[in-house]
Amino acid sequence: MTNKSLRILIAEEHPEQRLQLEKMLNRLGYYRIAPVASFEELQRLVQCALQPFNLLLGSIELGTHAGVDMARFCRVNAPIQHALLYHPQHLTVPAVPQGQRQAVSVSLPQVPDSEALESFMAIIDAPMLIGTLELPPAVAGRAGYPRPGARFGQTVFSR
User: 4: Cβ–Cβ under 8 A, 6 or more apart, which residues?
Assistant: First the structure.
C-alpha cells in the first residue's frame, strides 16, 4: 500500500520529462510532488525544507551544469532521505537488502521507466515493523473470547 504522505522532489530540466515522471508517480499513488527545473531551485527547496523530502528523483546532469556532484549533494543534505538519480538517455533497479534501506541512493544509466520507478518506490515505501507489545495477562487469558456485549459479527475486528 502506498504511503500518500511521502514528499517527493523531481529535479529535471526538461519540462516533458518532469511531467512524465510526475504522471508515473501519480499512477503509483504519490501526489506530494515538487518539480524543479534547475539546480538553484533544488538547492533552495532543500535548504529551506521544514520537513525532509522522502525522495529526490533527478537527473545527474542537473547538478553537472552547476558544477555539483548530485550523488554527493544528496548524501550531505539531511533533508533528502533517498535519491534515485539517472543519466538522461529498459532499466532494472538493483536489489537493496532490507538491512541497508536507511538511506537508499541509486544511479541509473537513463530516465526511469514505470517498472523501474515502481521497483524503487517498493524499496523505500515498504511498511516497517516498529515493535510489538505484549498483552497484559488479564487480557491475554481471554484471547479468542469476545467482550461481554460485543456483537461485531464477521468484521475485521473479530478475525
Answer: 29, 30, 31, 32
